[in-house]
Amino acid sequence: MATAGAQTEISCRNEAGKPVDWFIMYNLPKYKIDDVGSGLDYMYLDSSLKNWQMSKFLVNTSDGALGSTLKSLYTGKGFESNSSAYVLYNDAPPLLNYTKQYGHTKGALHFDRSQGFWLIHSVPHFPPFPERGYSWPPTGKQNGQTLFCVTYKYGQFIEIAQQLLYYNPHVYNYSLPAVFQEEMASLALLCKGSKLPWISQKRLQGLISAEGEHFLSFAKSHFYADDIYAAWVAQALKTDLLTETWQRKDHMLPSNCSLPKHVLNIKRIKLPGPIQFYSHYDHSKWCVSMMSEDRWTCLGDLNREDQQVWKSGGLVCSQNPVIYQAFRQAVAYYHDC
Predict the structure, then answer these.
(1) What does the record give under GO molecular function (predicted)?
(2) What are phi and psi of 278, to 5 degrees?
(3) What is the pLDDT of residues 1-13, one digit of tens each?
(4) Rounded CA gap, 228 and 28, in Å?
């Protein structure tokens, strides 16, 4: 029987399984420069570290930060609880067909009346249905992927639910007990697949983690038909951005210098090791300020592609110096205008 305290606390968890305010994982692609890997190795970063660390775990095991965080749902039977809620969403869900009617967004929420986590990621067909247990999809091995987990107090999930209205996510599995229904009316709409109310083009919302870290959440609906990076995020943050997104050859948007703040496409990534890989083997979606004094880093959902101009989704941004330095140093080469 579970005991009260840390064992039952819903939280992002570090590589040792201990509660942590936030973590970021960078799953390495199978094909790296001068090397063929497993596609299951990953770099890990949280507030206790100064730079990326190569994990001793593989991402397809239930060990490590990701497996430990999701244990509250899987082996912890959180999906059967009447005192906690969870929502799994993915435009390419496991076991179901991809449909174009939803936002290009992937993530998971799990929280109770005290706190919980919001996991934003780029992995198709993940996470699996809770009753099936933890696993990693075969499609997650080919390309690089990012996963960003933040622990929030309960009140922040009311704001996150509003942001998700703009995301219009494909919710493929959820539990939202009666105790949450009134305050989480927006989330209830998404979970039930109801016709969504008319919403404006975009919404910017500040979020504060459980330990007081400040984030900015950018959420755009399909009514905002423009590139989220160039048209909105770079201009709102007042910073030139280097962007790493998966770009298909016939649909990619070029670097953009037509607006006051520029957006430039990253073409090669380098991580400690040394590990290097080309952007076309990287399915992650992130951007970082070009200049160190601006210090912005954002992770999220959308690619810089012509077809995704019309898609809903978002980014969560931070000025944390550790996060900024880790991602800025990961830029090996980018295309100027």
Answers:
(1) deoxyribonuclease II activity
(2) -80, 155
(3) 233 333 469 999 9
(4) 25
- Say which DSSP state 126 is in: -
The answer to whether residues 262 and 238 touch, using CB atoms and an 8 Å cutoff, is no
- Pure H helices in the chain: 64-70, 154-167, 178-181, 185-192, 234-237, 321-328
What is the amino acid identity at position 61?
A: T
Fill in the DSSP letter of residue 337.
Answer: -
**Cα-Cα end-to-end distance for the chain:** 60
Q: What is the pTM of this model?
A: 0.95
- Are residues 194 and 181 in contact, defined by beta-carbon separation less than 8 angstroms? no
Write the DSSP string, 139-182: GGTTSBEEEEEEEEEHHHHHHHHHHHHHH---EEEEE--HHHHT
**How far apart (Å, rounded) are the C-alpha atoms in residues 200 and 202?**
6
Tokens of 62: 């239930």
Q: Which of 110, 121, 125, 283 is catalytic?
A: 283
pLDDT of residue 4: 35
Name residues of the chain where pLDDT drops below 50.
1-7
Structure confidence by residue, pLDDT tens digits, 72-127: 998 877 788 889 999 999 999 998 887 788 999 999 999 999 999 999 999 999 99
| CA-wise closest residue to 71 among 113, 110, 121 | 110
Quickly list DSSP for 74-111. Answer: TTT-GGG-SSEEEEEEESS-TTS---TTS-S-EEEEEE
Strands 263-271 and 241-244 turn out to be parallel
Please give the pLDDT value at position 6: 37
**CA–CA gap between residue 27 and residue 283 (Å, rounded):** 10
**Contacts (Cβ under 8 Å, ≥6 apart) of 254:** 265, 335, 337
Query: What does the pLDDT read at residue 3?
Result: 32
Active site residue 283: yes
pLDDT at residue 184, rounded to an integer: 94
The residues, any chain, with a CB within 8 Å of residue 320's CB and separated by 6 or more, are 47, 213, 297
Residues near 259 by beta carbon (within 8 Å), at least 6 away in sequence: 230, 231, 234, 235
